[in-house]
Amino acid sequence: MGRDLISCYLNSLRAHCAMPSSFSFRDINFPRGCSLLIIGLCLGYSVTSLTRLPIWGLPFVTAAWLALGYWLRWGAPRSPQRPVVPRIWSWALIPIALWGLYIYLSESFGIVDLSAVFFHLQAGMADHGGVSRVGAAFFYTLSMAALFVSFLWLLRHDHRWRRVEFFLALLLLASNPLLYGVTQRGAAIVTDDGAWMDRQYVKPLILDARDDPPNLLLLYLESIERTYADRERFGDAYADLEAIGEEGLVYEGVYQLDNTGWTMAGMIASQCGTPLMPAGLLHDRQFSPLETVVPGVDCLGDLLSEQGYRLTYMGGASTAFAGKGLFYQDHGFETILGREDLQPRLDDPDYLNNWGLYDDSLYDFTVEEIRRLNEEEGPWGLVNLTLAGHAPRGYPAQRCIDRQGEFDGEDILYSVECSAWLARDLLERLDSEGLLENTLVVIASDHLTMRVSAWEQLIQSKRDNTFMLLGPGIPVDRQTREASMVDVFPTILEAMGFTIDWHRAGLGVSLLSDEPTLIEEHSMEFVNARMREENALQQRLWEGLAPQREETEAAPQEQVVETPEDATGEEPASVQ
Predict the structure, then answer these.
(1) Domains and CATH numbers, the chain
(2) Sulfatase N-terminal domain: from which residue to which, for each copy (predicted)?
């Protein structure tokens, strides 16, 4: 297929070698066959990327397009009508470019969330997905350039396409999922600036602590949601995590609110008790890099560092990506280790995946770091983020391949099993060395997985995140709550023996208490709707970057008392 494209362009160049003396750039015309072929290939790739049609369906989509094009004589109408002015631009190119961006982001991350796009543009996209994504970006750029030229050729040579160009542009704009969130967030700008969610926010405070507070090991398993525990759909992929849960407290029903569905958003939700509403227009320099991440709220690291904890973050990917390094640096962590720090310590520096270190290497370094922390005085906390389950295919480590057999490069359940087994193996190694004494272990997925090979099975039922606790004073139990990742934050604090204000921190409620969570009281749909309509909580998160809010009399930090409007989201009925 690639040779056909090259041949087409070579033939085109040969056809134009003999140029008249009055040659103009506008005189260059790409052959009809090449233009239709390029458009067909791009269309076929888009269809196979955005649907469940396998990649080998691409030539069939392209062939169908070419057949339709030749049947309808696209580019060669029987009664051609030349444009008065040769076409060198089309407004449809902008919608086409936006679709190209959407497909690139979808291929890179599995799913596209506009809030995630805004956040990553501002927080930094350095080293995302490794060198292969740079190559992919270059490929996409060349493909889009060829598509633009081919589409312009078609417009110039076929008046029928010129007639529908405006409607095509509108259709492409209206159908692009990337733009859905623009109108949603725009509504918050032009409507009354509500503050319902901001009123639910409780500043995290530790009122009392144990004399011998426990250490904390927080393991984020990339995209390993609890939905995989269903053996009828997913076999034994989650079995090792189920075995871990039999020794601790497992929560079912930890759902995913809006603005918590990517890695940084999931970590901030579970460590700060609030969804990650991007800085957006609140940032004075909208697309210059952020210098701080959610500076307006206190998070887990802030509270623990005030209690004398020595804190470490470790992840296989670069800490420059998505502001991870900035977040942990700004919120109390002393040691921050990512790919750039750990790669030189590998026995084989080339043993890397597109994002960074494989999980077996990361866990080896995790054991070393916990040994170091245990040798020093005082409590410690370590947050660890894996990569094995990363959509769309995962990155199983060599240790898993030795155990499970060859990886086919597509089956996400293979990677889920790898992630679960490596986590269980890590805990067994640490326990055998006595490194988990007086340590609370928290295992959680950072967010629900994005599009993967098991997608159709995953969406058959309501999906929830992994969240389990193990350690001193933690009962062996399995509980079902209507909760979200913001409730993880206060639950961790109370599991560590800290007394917090009304069992609350941020928007979260400790699941160890009987207090109702935000979605138990109001539903996910209601909370998500308020998040789309309000700016006050967003301003709190990014205080210092945003224009200063008007000072209001501070309400005492006690039990939140709601007005009728707060409770229902509606205006209170007038008294009859």
Answers:
(1) 2-9+26-187 (no CATH), 207-545 (3.40.720.10)
(2) 214-497
